[in-house]
Design goal:
The protein has 4 helices and no strands. By secondary structure, the protein is mainly alpha-helical. It has 2 domains: 8-54; 62-100. The radius of gyration is 25 Å and the shape is elongated.
Length: 100
């Protein structure tokens, strides 16, 4: 019988990652204290290091990726609209021609 996968709260992950980042204990000691695998501690530490700068970004500042994402979303919404119109037109024409 397989063990059920454990889920950890964001607060727990942050605490463990911060502890690893401080470097007061080894990764293995932190993992043993928290009953998790050392690789998991290393992954959370790495993610914390990579994403810390996001905490200090200005809330109203727009990044280039946000602008690119919005342009992509707008383009896809136009395409969906076009496809809906075409589908409705084809459905209407097939009914008129008796091609159900």
């Amino acid at each position: 019988m397989k063990n059920k996968r454990r889920t950890h709260s964001p607060e727990f992950k942050a605490r463990v990652a911060l502890e690893a980042l401080k470097g007061l204990k080894t990764i293995h000691q932190i993992a043993a204290d928290n009953e998790i695998h050392p690789v998991q501690v290393s992954q959370w530490k790495k993610e914390l290091q990579e994403r810390m700068s996001e905490l200090f970004e200005r809330k109203n500042a727009r990044s280039k990726t946000t602008d690119d994402d919005e342009k992509q979303i707008a383009r896809l919404e136009r395409k969906v609209g076009q496809l809906v119109v075409e589908r409705d037109w084809l459905a209407k024409k097939s009914k008129e021609l008796g091609l159900d």
